[in-house]
Amino acid sequence: MDGSVLMASLGSRPGALQTALAGAEPYTDAEVMLRVKAGDESAFDYLVQKYRRPLVSFMYRMARNSAVAEDLAQEVFLRVYRSRQTYEASAKFTTWLYRIATNLAVNHARDTRKERPEVTVSLDEPDEETGTTMDVRDASMTVEESMVRRERLAAIRGKVEALPERQRLAVIMHKYQQMDYKQIAEVLKLSESATKSLLFRAYESLREQLKEFI
Amino acid sequence: MKCEEIREMMPDLASGMAKVTPEIKGHLAGCGACSGKLEEFRKTMALLEEWQAPEPSPYFDVRLRARLREEVAKPQAGWMGWFRRPVLAAAMTVLMAIGVGMVFSNGDGIYRHGDNVVADNDVSSQAEPGTAVGDLSALDKNHDLYSDFELLDDLQVQQNVSANP
Ligand SMILES: [Zn+2]
């Protein structure tokens, strides 16, 4: 990663990390995190730049609202920052990061479920979160086509959301975060074979429930 | 190679994360059930692709920086944090010189401070320690997560202390 991009994007002071990144030595995220622990703020900026997008998308699919997703993703970074002193490089950085994220997302889902017992995907209400109503319909589409597409999208979201909690987490990490079995297993603290069967069941039930769209 | 082994790999095969080895290819060529299932999985995953997530807003970094600044400016939780602040430490010393009773009668100020810290930190205060990891059994033994709530534990202990001086 280019140090100048980093500095331009977050306006951070040039730090030891930029100097280090200019060299050929690749740093693992765990090593970068150890620099955060040592007080290098540019190292923290680097992690924010790297994981901001994946975390927002993870949170978006868990929370279904882009403002809440951003808030939760920021909370993940705040917790990373807060726990910098106790960070141990024993676990892979992304595993640690996604555990924090998973914990926050699950808590958020439970809290909001209590508030709104029936979370349903409505086709009538415009979708404030994705702006789906805006971008679902492109100029080449007829009204019917865009309606069909909207219905399909609502079904996808609704069915993923309706999966049991762990299946849902596993699918979101696998399908949308491109995480492999091993990583998902580590985040969810499951064995690899349990993760494989969890994912198989999840996709199998999505396939079954979404077959009219396939 | 058994059908069961292929099934295990199905999500990774369908997503392209696992390579189709000659051995797998051989099985798929001779097994309609597995090759059919793989095709359906591929279609399911392609359908899921339609659900796109938004990009982080342009204000993401600005907001995060503001929250971090708040975090850094926030007085340290716990009694020791107070004593490390020179002005407050001096004030406390004066109060103590006057008498321990005075400290308690001025306890209101300390109390209110404790509340503010919790209020500033609303997202984590929703996540009570203990219920934070809750009944998601997968995360039950997650020490890393618990360590994230150390600050919160600290605050709550502090609250209890000031609530019952
Ligand atoms: Zn087979």
What does this molecule look like?
The complex is a heterodimer of chains A (214) and B (165). Chain A has 214 residues and is mainly alpha-helical. Helix content of chain A is 70%, strand content 0%. Chain A has helices at 3-10, 16-22, 29-37, 41-63, 66-82, 93-115, 132-135, 143-162, 165-176, 181-188, 192-209. Chain B is mainly alpha-helical. Chain B folds into three domains: 3-50, no CATH class; 87-120; 122-165. Chain B has helices at residues 3-15, 22-30, 32-48, 60-73, 79-83, 86-98, 100-105, 107-120, 122-126, 143-148, 150-163. Chain B is elongated and about 90 Å long. The interface between A and B is large, with 67 and 51 residues. Bound molecules: zinc ion. The site of zinc ion has 6 residues of chain B, from helix 1 and helix 3. Residues 3, 6, 27, 31, 33-34 of chain B line the site of zinc ion (ZN).
Number of strands of chain B: 0
Q: In CATH terms, what is the architecture of the domain at 1-118 in chain A?
A: Orthogonal Bundle
Q: Could you tell me the radius of gyration of chain A in angstroms?
A: 20 Å
Largest sheet of chain A: none
Largest sheet of chain B: none
Mind telling me the CATH superfamily name of the domain at 1-118 in chain A? RNA polymerase sigma factor, region 2, helix turn helix motif
β-strand percent of chain A reads under 5%
Secondary-structure element order of chain A, as H and E? HHHHHHHHHHH
Percent helix among the residues of chain B? over 70%
Features:
heterodimer; A: 214 residues; mainly alpha; Rna Polymerase Sigma Factor, Chain: A; disordered N terminus; B: 165 residues; 11 helices; elongated
Strand and helix map with partners:
The complex is a heterodimer of chains A (214) and B (165).
Chain A: H1 3-10, H2 16-22, H3 29-37, H4 41-63, H5 66-82, H6 93-115, H7 132-135, H8 143-162, H9 165-176, H10 181-188, H11 192-209
Chain B: H1 3-15, H2 22-30, H3 32-48, H4 60-73, H5 79-83, H6 86-98, H7 100-105, H8 107-120, H9 122-126, H10 143-148, H11 150-163
Helix pairs in contact in B: 1-3, 2-3, 8-11
Bound molecules: zinc ion.
